[in-house]
Amino acid sequence: MNKTVHLICTVALLSLFAGCQKKEIEQPPSHKQIDIPSPAAIKQQIEEEEEEKKEEIRGIVADDFNIGKNISKLEFTPLYGGKKVTLGSVIKGRSAVIDFWSTWCRPCVLMLPDMEKAHKKLQKDVAVISLSLDPARDAAQKVIKEKKCTFPTFVGDADLINSGIILPQTVIVNSKGIVTFVGHGRHTFEEIITMVNKYNR
Predict the structure, then answer these.
(1) Structural domain of residue 184, as residue ranges?
(2) Is residue 123 part of a domain?
(3) pLDDT tens track of the chain, all 201 residues?
(4) What is the number of other CB atoms lying within 10 angstroms of the CB of residue 162?
(5) Which of 156, 145, 147, 177 is nearest to 101 (CA)?
């Protein structure tokens, strides 16, 4: 009798042990651990997104014309009104000379006839463009008319006017819209031609 009871107890224990093992085996696989970004990583991502938004909403500034920058997609407002146009649509595959000037800058005004002369000589292969940084558009229109300038003239917005450009400033852009030269001061016709030949690459 005792042997029978002992045998039954042994079988029951073995069955219970086997059942536990089976349950352990049948446990569903644990879920993969979810990576939670650190506060520092979240802060960095927010700052990067804010910088991208600033780039989208800000206007054109002086740093946009640094050597090596592609400015073909920058938009400019024509002096005599109309919709903004991209630089690429103005130069049309040519290189370009951009003259930054203002009516209050005497060397700038004195340089306009040289720019007009360069425009007449180079316009087939080089676009000669002027960009007025005058807050009052009518003042720039008056000077352009007095100097009989026929090259395309545009006006800078408030961001560009207030971005600290030293006038007069001359920028040369290659046919791909990339800035290859930035210079300051008044340039003669001969100097403009020399600069174009040297930096038109």
Answers:
(1) 59-199
(2) yes
(3) 554 545 444 545 555 544 545 444 455 555 556 678 788 878 788 877 765 555 444 578 889 999 999 999 999 999 999 999 999 999 999 999 999 999 999 999 999 999 999 999 999 999 999 999 999 899 999 999 999 999 999 999 999 999 899 999 999 999 999 999 999 999 999 999 999 999 987
(4) 14
(5) 156
Q: What is the DSSP string of 78-131?
A: ETT----EEHHHHHTTSEEEEEEE-TT-HHHHHHHHHHHHHHHHHTTTEEEEEE
Q: What backbone phi and psi angles, to 5 degrees, belong to 62?
A: -55, -40
Q: Which residues pair with 154 in a beta bridge?
A: 78, 131
The candidate with the shortest Cα–Cα distance to 96, out of 43, 184, 175, is: 175
What is the number of alpha carbons within 13 Å of residue 23 lying toward its C-beta?
6
Could you give the number of structural domains in the chain?
Answer: 1
**85 and 163 Cβ atoms separated by less than 8 Å:** no
Token look-up 């961001």 returns 159
* CATH code of the domain covering residue 159: 3.40.30.10
